[in-house]
């Protein structure tokens, strides 16, 4: 039921958008979500993902909120 409310709210808000750039961006985002392509990883990519998982398991990761804060600070420069 919550999904239905979100969908209806999005539809209502999209109907009121006049800015072509915003509409183009929404369209782009929806197009990405609907893309059902299967991505094949090469051996190096698989290795890098496995190493990252091990680092996270060992507590070496950075919390997403900290990363987002650092990105925001970097973008302000």
Q: Can you offer a commentary on this structure?
A:
With 77 residues, the protein is mainly alpha-helical. The chain has helices at residues 2-15, 20-34, 43-57, 64-76. The radius of gyration is 19 Å and the shape is extended.
Classify the secondary structure makeup into a structural class. mainly alpha
The major beta sheet can be summarized as: none
Proportion of residues in β-strands? under 5%
Radius of gyration: 19 Å
Q: Order of helices and strands, N to C?
A: HHHH
Number of helices in the DSSP assignment:
4
For the residues shown, what is the average pLDDT? Answer: 88
Helix content: over 70%
Distance N terminus to C terminus? 43 Å
Keywords:
single chain, 77 residues, mainly alpha, extended
Any chance you could write out the topology, listing elements then pairs?
Blueprint: H1 2-15, H2 20-34, H3 43-57, H4 64-76
Outline:
Helices cover 74% and strands 0% of the residues. It is mostly helical. The protein is extended.
């Amino acid at each position: 039921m919550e999904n239905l409310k979100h969908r209806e709210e999005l539809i209502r808000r999209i109907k009121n958008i006049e800015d072509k750039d915003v509409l183009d961006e929404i369209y782009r985002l929806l197009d990405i979500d609907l893309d059902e392509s299967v991505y094949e990883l090469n051996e190096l990519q698989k290795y890098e993902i496995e190493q990252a998982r091990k680092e996270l398991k060992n507590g070496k990761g950075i919390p997403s909120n900290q990363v987002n804060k650092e990105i925001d600070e970097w973008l302000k420069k």
